[in-house]
Amino acid sequence: MPSAIKFSHLDKVLFPKDAITKGELIEYYRSVAERMLPHLQDRPLAMARYPNGIDKPSFFQQAAPTHLPSWVKQVTVSKEDGEISHVLCQDEQTLAFLANQAAVTLHTWLSRVDRPERPDQLLFDLDPPHEFEEARHAALALRELLTELGLPCVVKTTGGRGLHVGVPIERRYDADELREFARDICAILESREPDRYTSEVRKAKRGDRLFLDVSRNAYAQLVVAPYTVRATPDARVATPLDWSEVEDETLTPSRFTLRSMGGRTAESDPWHVMPEPATSLTSARRRVDSLLAA
């Protein structure tokens, strides 16, 4: 572990609209490290990097860079045509180092390196066609259904128009099994309000319906990390929420930005006490089958 990281070009502007510099990005990630690291540690990581700012050419990096400091941990995992090495972000120093590399947005797996084929979260990506309000409504409807199934859940903004709803689970199920289960849950939601929701992958066939996306539950798929910054002009942040905030009709994703998060991190963390992970999905599976057959 280095005694100090050699930062560079701290005054480089990464977000031109608000003149947010790389130095500010680094300090932001340092300020949220205590909250963010539990959601990063032991998970393969990928990065969206913007070396000259979000309005300039960028690249998405899954494989770990070839020249990393020895103290930055890596993990090699299987992929369809071989293997790939990912960065692991285990500590604040690595998080700051990645920010210095202009890694604006961090993406993680839903599983950890000791059991990469067994996710510890079931994820629903609520992607509205137009307005955030559509995602807010969907998240509340999904929470009601999940509660009906006996599955507690958490929610966060994505930094875009959508919301992510996650169900903590014990690592007993493989990714394909979980994705099929999530699809069936979405099929129930879609059957209840077919004019509002769809699982149709092709955009041309969705119309004005909100897309219920469960594809991120597949093996090696990526999801934006909690508290990560997105490459939007106002530097929005993917932010964990309390469900009472989702119930507030005035909620907007633009409320949470790199520069506004200081006040929020001074308050209680909505995800400080996560729901106990579901030890078994058997009873929920039976209930889902019953609702689909009805």
TrEMBL record:
What Gene3D superfamilies is this protein classified in? DNA primase, PRIM domain
Please list the residue ranges annotated as the DNA ligase D polymerase domain. Answer: 21-271
What domain of life does the UniProt record list for this protein's source? Bacteria
InterPro entries recorded: LigD_pol_dom, NHEJ_LigD
The record's Pfam families line, in alphabetical order, gives: LigD_Prim-Pol
Region described as Disordered: 260-280
Top EC class per UniProt?
ligase
Q: Which GO terms describe its molecular function?
A: DNA ligase (ATP) activity
Question: Keywords in UniProt for this one?
Answer: Ligase
Q: What is its EC number?
A: 6.5.1.1
* Protein name as annotated: Non-homologous end-joining DNA ligase
